[in-house]
Amino acid sequence: MAKKKQHKSTIGIVLYSVPRYSETFFRNKIKGLQENGFEVILFVDYFNKDDINFPCKIVAASVFNEGKLKTIINSLFALLKAVFVNPKRSLKLFQLDKKDGVALKKRVKNLILNQFFLNENIDWLHFGFGMLAIDRENVAQVMNAKMAVSFRGFDLYLSPLRHKDCYKSLFTKKVKYHVLSQEMKQTLIDYEISKDTIKVITPAIDVTFFQTQNKNREDSAVIQLVSVARLHWKKGLEYSLEALKCLKLAGVKFQYTIIGEGAQLERLVFAAHQLEIEENVTFTGALSHDDVKSQLEQADIYLQYSIQEGFCNAVIEAQAMGLLTVVSDAEGLSENVLNNETGWVVPKRSPELLAHKIIEVINLSPEEKNKIRVRAIARVKEEFNLKKQKQAFVDFYKKD
């Protein structure tokens, strides 16, 4: 008797756009799933011709923001698909939205905007960010798929402040959640989400790339500090600059390099000027992975004094490179760095405390510093490697 062909599970991943080369989290996740026998379909809101060679099937939403005429044409085309191509699924989506109390006009809009999902047959529909599930809470059920949602720091902690009750409908649905830290898991539990539906999978890095031969490095005469961060208020860079002003007043010689770009550049440059440390601070802009590694290789201390932070890959990379790492206690950072074991955790929004901690770290003996470095490197290799993360996502979909 011929063996029955085994079903190959298909994961639909929903993102804003096709991940760029530098967006390693989603690229590694997709690659890991494919290596473990899953089919992957990527659903995106935005698509361009450069994405055509991405190594999985891409299904892109119709364009509704390029002029009134094109919007009308695409809307009519979507409605025709709803009636003649996907009538059963479209009717079910319309009815489920009605059951949720969605107004008629919004139901029609949801039907048009979400039509691009309905041609596909999948086992899981996984929204890569919480906000991507808004107005799509019933799409997975319509597709006869299980629903998953990933939360990162910004969309779990900040989006509800900007969009009040944005997850009210989502949190009533049958969903399996992925978060980056135990702190984030507890936040979802506080929303009365069952802990059994929440899986913590931390970020991971290529530990074969982010490694250093200089594990017993000696501090420079001028202490080299570095941060890798988007220039956004949530990264707390202004507090870092205020702490470094305290260092300067204490007579500590230092150079601080900030790697990253963003809308707050002018504000931060001006803050460094007002604090009279502009000669001690360098803004490099965005750098390649190789150049980031080179900067980390030359640094003594890594700072990540964020106000809000889900977990932060850059902190893992710094520890892997043997840097003495000082972070705030924002969300997942105190799980990323173990205080007094693999680095140091300082209460956020307290630049004086940060300055005191940096001075304390500088004054540690070489033996004490190296103990911290060795423990940090070993923990990153054990806990935050790509192999472990890929297997965790395989288990996420298989163990339901």
UniProtKB/TrEMBL annotation:
CDD domains: GT4_PimA-like (cd03801). InterPro entries: Glyco_trans_1. The keyword Repeat does not apply. Residues 213-372 form the Glycosyl transferase family domain. GO terms for molecular function: glycosyltransferase activity. Keywords: Glycosyltransferase, Transferase. Its EC number is 2.4.-.-. It is an enzyme of class 2 (transferase). This is Glycosyltransferase family 4 protein. It comes from Lacinutrix iliipiscaria.
